[in-house]
């Protein structure tokens, strides 16, 4: 089962291979039979180029059915798939390509010259947003079948670089076993089945778009709508003919901002999932009021894939990422590595077949990230309640230490976000001559109601949290800086405001 991921998918393909696997927003349709044939041709093409199992193929392209076929072609040929964000600039690409040393690079036509310059020895193929380019051209006419190359269950199948807000990005090596067990756990937990139609608007270069959304659809032989990117208007058009949507918090915020969102459009929708960043409690409630659907929030990271999920049947708790998935152990420990009492914040650690086992070319790094008994330190701070539900309060690195006291940004953000007139907020630390770090809150006004001024927000917080946690300053901004997956980039905020109190 773990020798080749494609074999696992193919074993679950529909009996009727003329079933539609992928339809694009602009009306192109591909059956499961075509998906099988096109991916066989691409695997054959990679083999003809001389690529050997275990070699890397870097892929930096926009979403298209062909981008997914290229991924499946790599799987079939036993190649290590290395997706790269299309937004990366030359210096970033140089770093990834020099580090990963791919034998082939598949990129947008406009990036081909740069790719050739960075990696003169690599084979460069192009694929554009329409799914056309030298990659597809070259594979035309090749045999429409290809036996998947078996590899060790723990050999790397994909390498994904983590966003790396501190230090250099690290290549997370994920094995067939990691990907297979997680995809199976998710399809079971979320009841994915052949009648589902997944609305897929996430980038395929990210774990969420590829290993959560696409894997769930393939493993359950569902149909997926695959769009170039998320766009609220397009989502509203496709929701009436979909049953499942997987998104990030920003998507839900944008759907709610569209007056067209209503129950009627969502009448066939049975599941909305959310992850990659914290879902504001207010968004959860407003979405339920508008559509009658409780968003199912889950939690994961590139290194661990998905670890916890609110239940399909059972209470979905706003602000919680739910209990551990079957086959995954999740625990919270204090600063000495001892289990933290229930309800107390600590480091979230995870163990299971879903967890990666190495960073590319950094064998020493791994020892620091795992405990003696095999748990991976996620770097997230959270608490487990009696119910077994996990509540995240932030990243360890976002922890603010002000005057020697620990301040968890999430706790304050929850209070600020409840204030009328506030759309959302981000709390972060900046250097302070007296306290070491000072707490600062960046607030985005909602525009729906009048937002209190900074001193009033500070007063409001004083009534709700200990004094040392109250922000020394509240700044108003138009929008929080976010990356492609909707994660707030606190590092950018801290750097932007680092001279607020005279710097260090
Ligand atoms: P990435 O590896 O880029 O997917 O980022 C993983 C990180 O995203 C995790 O370590 C968490 O900090 C954050 N994350 C993912 N899902 C959630 C969630 N539902 N709520 C809060 N943070 C999340």
Distance between the termini: 55 Å
| Hetero compounds | adenosine monophosphate
Rounded to an integer, what's the Rg over CA atoms?
23 Å
Average residue-wise pLDDT: 94
Question: Could you list the spans in which at least 5 consecutive residues all have pLDDT below 50?
Answer: none
The number of helical segments is 15
What structural class do the secondary elements suggest?
alpha/beta
CATH-defined topology of the domain at 5-174: Rossmann fold
Helix amount: 25-40%
Please give the largest β-sheet: 8 strands, mixed
- What amount of the residues lies in strands? 15-25%
The CATH architecture of the domain at 5-174 can be named as: 3-Layer(aba) Sandwich
Strand neighbour order, sheet with most strands = 2-1-10-9-11-12-13-14
Coarse shape: globular
Features:
single chain, alpha/beta, 8-stranded mixed sheet, 15 helices, 23 strands, globular
Protein architecture, described:
The chain is of the alpha/beta class and 504 residues long. It is built from 15 helices and 23 strands. The chain has helices at 5-12, 32-48, 65-77, 90-100, 112-118, 134-139, 176-189, 207-219, 232-238, 249-257, 281-291, 363-369, 409-417, 454-462, 490-496; strands at residues 20-24, 29-31, 56-60, 80-83, 104-107, 123-126, 156-161, 171-175, 197-200, 223-226, 244-247, 271-274, 296-301, 305-309, 328-333, 346-352, 376-384, 390-395, 400-402, 405-407, 422-432, 436-445, 473-476. Adenosine monophosphate (AMP) binds at residues 162-163, 207, 275-278, 297, 299-302, 321, 378, 380, 392, 395.
């Amino acid at each position: 089962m773990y020798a080749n991921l494609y074999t696992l998918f193919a074993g679950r393909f529909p009996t009727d291979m003329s079933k539609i696997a992928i339809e694009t927003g602009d009306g192109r349709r591909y059956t499961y039979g075509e998906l099988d044939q096109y991916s066989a041709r691409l695997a054959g093409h990679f083999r003809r180029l001389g690529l050997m199992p275990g070699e890397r193929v870097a892929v930096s392209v926009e979403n298209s059915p062909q981008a997914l076929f290229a991924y499946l072609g790599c799987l079939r040929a036993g190649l290590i798939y290395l997706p790269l964000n299309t937004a990366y600039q030359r210096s970033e690409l140089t770093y990834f390509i020099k580090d990963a040393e791919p034998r082939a690079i598949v990129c947008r036509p406009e990036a081909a010259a740069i790719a050739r310059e960075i990696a003169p020895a690599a084979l460069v193929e192009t694929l554009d947003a329409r799914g056309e380019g030298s990659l597809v051209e070259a594979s035309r006419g090749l045999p429409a079948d290809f036996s998947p190359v078996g590899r060790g269950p723990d050999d790397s199948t994909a390498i994904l670089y983590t966003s790396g807000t501190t230090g250099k990005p690290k290549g997370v090596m994920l094995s067939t076993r990691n990907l297979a067990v997680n995809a199976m756990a998710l399809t079971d937990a979320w009841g994915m089945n052949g009648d589902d139609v997944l609305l897929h608007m996430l980038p395929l270069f990210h774990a969420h778009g590829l290993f959560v959304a696409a894997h769930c659809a393939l493993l359950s032989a569902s149909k997926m709508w695959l769009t170039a990117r998320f766009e609220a208007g397009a989502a509203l058009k496709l929701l009436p003919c979909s049953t499942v949507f997987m998104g990030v918090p920003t998507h839900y915020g944008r759907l709610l901002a569209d007056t067209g969102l209503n129950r009627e459009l969502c009448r066939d929708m049975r599941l909305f999932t959310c992850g990659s960043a914290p879902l504001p409690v207010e968004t959860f409630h407003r979405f339920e009021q508008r559509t009658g659907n409780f968003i199912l929030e889950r939690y994961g990271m590139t290194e661990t894939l998905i670890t916890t999920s609110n239940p399909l049947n059972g209470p979905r708790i706003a602000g919680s990422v739910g209990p551990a998935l079957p086959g995954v152990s999740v625990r919270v420990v204090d600063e000495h590595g001892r289990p933290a009492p229930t309800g107390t914040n600590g480091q979230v650690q995870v163990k299971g077949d879903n967890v990666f086992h190495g960073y590319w070319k950094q064998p020493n790094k791994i020892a620091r990230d795992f405990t003696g008994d095999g748990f991976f330190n996620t770097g997230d701070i959270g608490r487990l309640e009696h119910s077994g539900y996990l509540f995240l309060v932030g990243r360890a690195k976002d922890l603010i230490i002000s005057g020697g006291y620990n301040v968890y940004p999430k706790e304050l953000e929850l209070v600020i976000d409840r204030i009328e007139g506030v759309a959302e907020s981000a709390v972060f630390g900046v250097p302070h001559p007296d306290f070491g770090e000072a707490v600062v809150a960046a607030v985005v006004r909602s525009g729906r109601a009048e937002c209190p001024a900074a001193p009033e927000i500070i007063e409001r917080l004083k009534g709700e949290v200990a004094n040392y946690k109250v922000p020394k300053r509240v700044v108003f901004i138009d929008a929080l800086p976010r990356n492609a997956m909707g994660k707030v980039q606190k590092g950018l905020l801290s750097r932007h405001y680092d001279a607020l109190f005279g710097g260090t």
